[in-house]
Request: fold
Amino acid sequence: MKKHNFSAGPCILPQEVMQKAAEAVVELDNIGLSLIEISHRSKEFVAIMEKAQKLALEHLGLEDKGYKALFLQGGASMEFLMVAYNLLQNKAAYLNSGTWSTKAIKEAKLFGELIEVASSKDANFNYIPKGYEIPGDIDYFHCTSNNTIFGTQMMEFPSIDAPLVCDMSSDIFSRQLDFSKFDIIYAGAQKNMGPAGTTLVVIKEDILGKVDRTIPSMLDYQIHLGKDSMFNTPPVFAVYTSMLTLQWLKDLGGIPAIEKVNNAKASLLYNEIDRNPLFVGFAAKEDRSKMNATFNLADGVQSEVFDALWKEAGINGINGHRSVGGYRASMYNAMPLESVQVLVDVMQEFERKS
Ligand SMILES: *Cc1c(COP(=O)(O)O)cnc(C)c1O
Reply:
């Protein structure tokens, strides 16, 4: 039986995407060859890469606006480093809203002065800092749109003159935003787009080329842009599968359509967390993530019965991250509303049995 997969990442992908990806590993589009045995410079793969790039920009409304999409390797973690390598000349400002922001800050410190404009570490990152000031003389401002581990999500982004860089690994393509506010958006594929192995980096080209340092080729955005993501062998399987997911999303009606489903899933689960006396939400209500819901058992409630019930219902992956404890239900784009209903039913059954 297929499980209801609430894993935080790698995570659920659309069933039909997995089916098509599996078929392409055996044979791609009746060409007598597997996706993973053809040259990345073959016309078949070049077309796949171009389609993936086009779909990504199309979904974000960034076509013909000076942006390009790259599919790189090294995960979102590599972008922590590459952003600073390519943009940080003197000073950068970062918002610290969780583990991933903290890691991004650590890498950027290698390259210049770093201003942490605000941090929610004082409350184990259970909220998004607000009302902070961003200095004017910075090379860029960096933030994390969705904090996968703590279950918080930024609802508003600052308007600044400096480039705005955002790690959208765990909520890209999940909600409508004015993406043209951002100059670099990056996202590891394995949360909302595809298998691990590639990172989508969307860049406004005119912000590059402003640092003095020599950048190693593999870490230089301009080199990757100049070669259209083909400077070295791209992760062909991850790019292909991401392309399939982006096509799946387009066929559904794009971000506006999936956002409605995501809103419905999040309301269903948060309403139950708030209604059911056996549970308490972890994140501040106004900052609750629609992708990752974090919650705990109420004081004194034992976990055994609940854990047995959700396992029995075929639910997978809801144990909380070790830095938060409790539970985390990740409800990425590919998760149907029905799976969230199964979890809510289990929470109600737990209440009846207690
Ligand atoms: C998972 C995650 C990362 C790390 O991604 P890797 O691909 O493992 O490097 C970074 N940022 C956010 C917001 C994430 O959710």
Summary: The pocket of pyridoxal-5'-phosphate is lined by residues 9, 75-77, 100, 144, 148, 167, 169-170, 188, 191 (CB under 6 Å). The chain is about 35% helix and 15% strand. The first helix runs from residue 15 to 26.
